[in-house]
């Protein structure tokens, strides 16, 4: 007995039911050509993931149903292949996340997802109803069970499959990326599926969808938990897994083994894919960004060019009276290294005009943060004007550390359509920049080594207003990403004044973050779908016994 499974790691588009069906049909043709008996696709592969409130629209479901019928008919063209496809379905007035098996022009089985995640970026109970049943079918003498993503993250659904006689789990997944998620998936499958005596082939989605990035890394494990096959990260792939039954009756799995990426290149590639798919799937011709001569805009530029190519990226340096000559030189140098269109638009005339207009209103008042923010908003206005004229999207360049504490200007440097570094701490910005330069030195070394500054007043540096970034980022990681109490961070040795300052600023900056653009999620918790704090709140968390 030999069973070959083709795991179609697809980059689907939410709402493009016809296009998604075409990609599945193309994958099926390839799978059949490779002699596969099973084609396994990702979760909700027909409508894309996350479909969100589209699911409430009757026309959306009608288009899904039409695509299901297209798949059913197409399955007749590959008579030796069982197609496993994910889609939303209405059964007796209840909406489910379904996985259907199509063979020789008929639907021969259907599984309805049992475990609905309602944490982090997920809110599936808003859209679906659970169904705690098992679906087992036999192909080439192997008893296969269908499970969908979250079903394998808990033991109950695999247990039902095992009780129903399954020896191999086929899992449809839309598991979003976060750093080191691949190892977590393997450990979870070992604990919940393999520990119950079953092998598993898990097909994961790949691609960017708004703030989520899906990394692929589809995989196969035997019943002993040994990794037997793995698809590459961040690209479409057809992973072929061969299943053989040994003399002892146990299933042996084998397939190609793509190398796992190290931490920094993995994060970098996630950001690149997030940019590429957000721009491509939303139909933008290219991107424009402000290139300041600082490290955040430098890394953003490198990511954009790696994602889109130099011909689809343009940069603008907008110097003020406080911009250092080396900033101008470094921005020009980097743009030249990457071959992007670069122009210089001094903002001094606009700044003088603003101050002149406001002179009588501000009479008797000294200059302060107001004048700094005017400069940032002038830059935002210029970038948005270029965006309007060209149809290219503005990339903002702020990082997670700045967004956490509000070290950004609303309608200024936050003005734009996508924020590539939104979930990247400042310390990681430096790490990624150094790593990128090991591939080719596109970022001038002086940009990396000089102290960071917004250059909105004379001799300004970020550390004038904030704790050192290594301290700031440890606080953000502990308090925001890991949800630890502020007092526990102090107990770990972080300065109480710094913890109190960061917790206070993080709370005050909520109104800014909720008006900012989306950006790719690469950590366990980002400022997006999985951060849902109110703007108006009287709650104050104690820091080492004191209010904040």
UniProtKB/TrEMBL annotation:
NCBIfam families: nadE, PRK13981.1. Catalyzes the ATP-dependent amidation of deamido-NAD to form NAD. Uses L-glutamine as a nitrogen source. This is Glutamine-dependent NAD(+) synthetase. Signal peptide: none annotated. One of its GO terms (cellular component) is cytoplasm. CDD domains: GAT_Gln-NAD-synth (cd07570), NAD_synthase (cd00553). Pathway: Cofactor biosynthesis; NAD(+) biosynthesis; NAD(+) from deamido-NAD(+) (L-Gln route): step 1/1. The lineage of its organism: Bacteria, Pseudomonadati, Pseudomonadota, Betaproteobacteria, Burkholderiales.
């Amino acid at each position: 007995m030999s069973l070959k499974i083709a795991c179609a790691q697809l980059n689907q588009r939410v709402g493009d039911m016809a296009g998604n069906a075409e990609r599945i049909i193309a994958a099926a043709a390839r799978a059949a050509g490779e002699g596969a008996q099973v084609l396994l696709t990702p979760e909700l592969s027909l409508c894309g993931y996350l479909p969100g409130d589209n699911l409430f629209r009757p026309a959306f479901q009608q288009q899904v149903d039409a695509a299901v019928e297209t798949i059913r008919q197409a399955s007749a063209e590959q008579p030796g292949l069982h197609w496993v496809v994910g889609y939303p379905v209405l059964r007796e007035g209840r909406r489910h996340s379904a996985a259907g098996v199509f063979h020789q022009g008929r639907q021969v089985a259907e599984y309805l997802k049992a475990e609905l995640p309602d944490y982090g970026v997920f809110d599936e109970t808003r859209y679906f109803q659970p169904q705690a049943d098992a679906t087992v079918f036999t192909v080439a003498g192997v008893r296969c069970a269908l499970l969908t993503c979250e079903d394998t993250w808990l033991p109950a659904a695999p247990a039902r499959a095992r009780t129903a006689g399954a020896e191999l789990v086929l899992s449809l997944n839309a598991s979003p990326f976060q750093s080191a998620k691949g190892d977590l998936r393997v450990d979870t499958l070992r604990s919940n599926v393999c520990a119950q005596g079953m092998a598993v082939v898990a097909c994961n989605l790949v691609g960017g969808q708004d703030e989520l990035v899906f990394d692929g890394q589809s995989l196969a494990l035997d019943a002993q938990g040994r990794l037997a096959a793995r698809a590459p990260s961040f690209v479409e792939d057809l992973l072929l897994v061969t299943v053989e039954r040994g003399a002892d009756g146990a299933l042996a799995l084998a397939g190609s083994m793509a190398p796992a990426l190290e931490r920094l290149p993995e994060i970098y590639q996630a950001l690149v894919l997030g940019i590429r798919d957000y721009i491509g799937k939303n139909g933008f011709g290219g991107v424009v960004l402000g290139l300041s001569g600082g490290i955040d805009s430098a890394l953003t530029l490198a990511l954009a060019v790696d994602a889109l190519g130099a011909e689809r990226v343009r940069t603008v340096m907008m110097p003020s009276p406080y911009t250092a000559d080396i900033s101008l030189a470094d921005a020009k140098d980097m743009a030249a290294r990457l071959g992007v269109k670069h122009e210089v638009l001094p903002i001094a005339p606009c700044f003088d005009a603003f101050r002149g207009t406001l002179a009588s209103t501000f009479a008797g008042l000294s200059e302060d943060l107001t004048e700094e923010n005017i400069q940032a908003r002038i830059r935002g206005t210029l970038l948005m004007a270029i965006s309007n004229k060209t149809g290219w999207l503005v990339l903002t360049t702020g990082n997670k550390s700045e967004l956490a504490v509000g070290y950004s200007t609303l309608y200024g440097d936050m003005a734009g359509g996508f924020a590539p570094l939104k979930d990247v701490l400042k310390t990681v910005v430096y790490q990624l920049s150094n790593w990128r330069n090991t591939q080719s030195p596109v970022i001038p070394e002086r940009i990396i080594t000089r102290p960071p500054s917004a250059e909105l007043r004379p001799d300004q540096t970020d550390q004038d207003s904030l704790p050192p970034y290594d301290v700031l980022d440890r606080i953000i990681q502990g308090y925001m990403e890991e949800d630890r109490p502020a007092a526990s961070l102090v107990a770990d040795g972080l300065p109480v004044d710094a913890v109190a300052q960061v917790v206070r600023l993080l709370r005050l900056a909520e109104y800014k973050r909720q008006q900012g653009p989306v950006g790719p999620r690469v950590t366990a918790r980002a400022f997006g779908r999985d951060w849902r704090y109110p703007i108006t709140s009287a709650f104050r968390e104690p820091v080492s016994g004191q209010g904040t």
